[in-house]
Amino acid sequence: MSKLVTGDGRTHIDSPLMRESLVDRRVLARTDSPGERAILPHVVLVSVGGQSIFDRGRAALVPLAEEIAQARKTLGTRMIIGVGGGTRVRHTISVALDLGLPTGGMAQLVGAMEECNAIFLNTLLAQHGSITMPRDHFWELPLYLDSGILPIVISIPPYHFWEPPPEQGPLPAHGSDFGLFMHAEVLGMEKIIFVKDEDGLYDADPKKHPGARRYGVIELDELLAELPDETILDRALFRAWSAARHVKRVQIVNGLVSGQLTAALAGEDVGTVILKGARA
Amino acid sequence: MTGDRKSLDSSLGTSSMTSAVAGLDYQPVAMMPEVVVLKIGGQSIMDRGRKALFPILEEIAAAKDRFKLLIGAGGGTRARHIYSIGSDLELPTGILAATGSFVPMQNARMLQMLLARHGGIFILHDDFEKLPLYFRLGCIPIMTGMPPFRYWEKPGEGSRIPAHRTDAGVFLSAEVLGARRCLFVKDEDGLYEDDPKKRPGTPLIPRISASELLARDLPDLILERVVVEYLTRSRFCTEVQIINGLKRGLLTRALEGEDVGTIIYQG
Fold it and tell me: CB-based contacts of B217: which residues, under 8 Å, 6+ apart?
């Protein structure tokens, strides 16, 4: 039984952190341990790019939606979908920058553009059992997954007005790639597939630098040592991944090439595969 | 055929937005710079009960028509109990951040009940955009100090405790509102070189820059470390003040702009 402890003017509940400063490094270290519970393992998170897929409209999106529906049927993968916002997010930020809105104000605005894409994708997948899932339905994921429903989750993390001051420039640092990464990590999922319009991650933007080199299979540590200036994923994702415990594999595939996503879901090393701790 | 990207023309164009965009002309606008964001400590004030809290509330009630006060509530010993059980279960940081959010919420509600007759209203993160209305009506909005990150709180190295707790949330509220200074009401005279409750005689630091404080790398701090880190690069909230709420009159003096307690400033 927990007991109450008084005597210093405060009323404490007896616990190992009682009376402690939660800023004290000596105390913080006591909360750590090597293990961590995986809450919803063996679920794959698939992210569909905004600029790369959605902004191309029907030509890119319809075949990809069909591939998702088909792969789910044949492979039986338990998966969650997230979506990016694309060019409307860039336009929003561009206007907000010109208006001088604070960084937290910009972060408050951008999620709306991604929710539109979630609805678009849902119109294509609803007949196969998809549902757009509001953020506060977080703990209903097992219900959806066990009943064969494909949840399309909100990808922008809820930092909103409270977006921390960025390290460089005024743009919010916590975008949809990061948000989806955290979604997977906190639930103990091990595998994320980002569907974009390039064959993977390159050492420079291949649309601007035709000679850019594509990474095949690479360890996170190796990649971080030479992380390109402009990457296909949020930088905040890579940083969070370094301290993370569950996500082992982040794969980037080309959604414009039929079959790449299915191959990735089947475990094949198509596109770029970034691994954490595989060679440890 | 895979279709062309249908892009909107804008200054960010087809930028990947994953690296700093050069050459942006950005002149930020302060939303409500006159608001004073103040935090009432959980373990330091709320867990002491009536004896510590009532005099502070009297000062707040007396000051509320002179200042626009936004109050953020801290957590305290029940939050520590949650973090302790959560760590024992080896749960991820995001779960601790989500469950740790409930205690400051309770404390905010307690503060609201006590300040109701002076216009105290309990607000949620989603009510933030209604702040002008609340101030226009002479209310004292009271909210949880926790930022809304919850399951999306980043894991840290060497600890499961969420890095962004109520100090960070209160600081970030001040930053987005464009307030220059935010105020932390705790139970010590300010910032010390180490925890004065455990090591009496530790010297008080009345004024220090955020970068110097980071460089000193103290084992303990009276404020969450991320706040000091963000102070080095914030655009609006460039000072935090930590005062002792157990000493009568200090809060009022701090509201009037006096440098009581400890000031940590940008630099």
Answer: none
Instruction: Show which of residues 135-174 on chain A sit within 8 Å of chain B, judged by CB atoms.
Output: 138, 157-171, 174
User: Side chain identity at A112, as an amino acid letter?
Assistant: A
Report the number of distinct structural domains present in chain B: 1
Rounded to whole angstroms, the Cα distance separating B152 from B101 reads 13
B188 touches chain A (CB under 8 A): no
| pTM as predicted | 0.92
CB contact under 8 A, B1 and A235: no
Range of the domain at B116: 35-265
Placement of tokens 């063996």 in the chain: A42
Residue A21 lies in a domain: no
- Complex ipTM value: 0.90
Q: Are A247 and A189 in contact (CB under 8 A)?
A: yes
B5 assigned to some structural domain: no
Distance CA(A37)–CA(A29), nearest Å, equals: 18
For residue B179, the chain A residue with the least C-alpha distance is: A102
Give, for all 280 residues of chain A, the pLDDT tens digit: 578 888 888 888 888 888 778 888 888 888 888 889 999 999 999 999 999 999 999 999 999 999 999 999 999 999 999 999 999 999 999 999 999 999 999 999 999 999 999 999 999 999 999 999 999 899 999 999 999 999 999 999 999 999 999 998 999 999 999 999 999 999 999 999 999 999 999 998 888 888 999 999 999 999 999 888 778 788 889 989 998 999 999 999 999 999 999 999 999 999 999 999 875 4
Give the CATH number, domain containing residue B176: 3.40.1160.10
CA distance B168 to B145: 8
* Distance in angstroms (rounded) separating the CA atoms of residues B165 and A262: 41
- Asked if residue B83 belongs to a domain, the reply is yes
CATH number at residue A164: 3.40.1160.10
Inter-chain residue contact A33 with B87, CB threshold 8 Å: yes
Length of chain A in residues, anyone?
Answer: 280
Q: Provide the domain count of chain A.
A: 1
Size of interface A-B (CB pairs under 8 A): 262
Residue A125 within any structural domain of the chain: yes
Out of A10, A56, A57, name the one closest to residue B47 (CB). A10
Domain-located, residue A185: yes
In a domain, A66, yes or no: yes
Selected for mutation to probe chain B from A182, A227, A246, A253 (highest B CB count within 10 Å) is A182
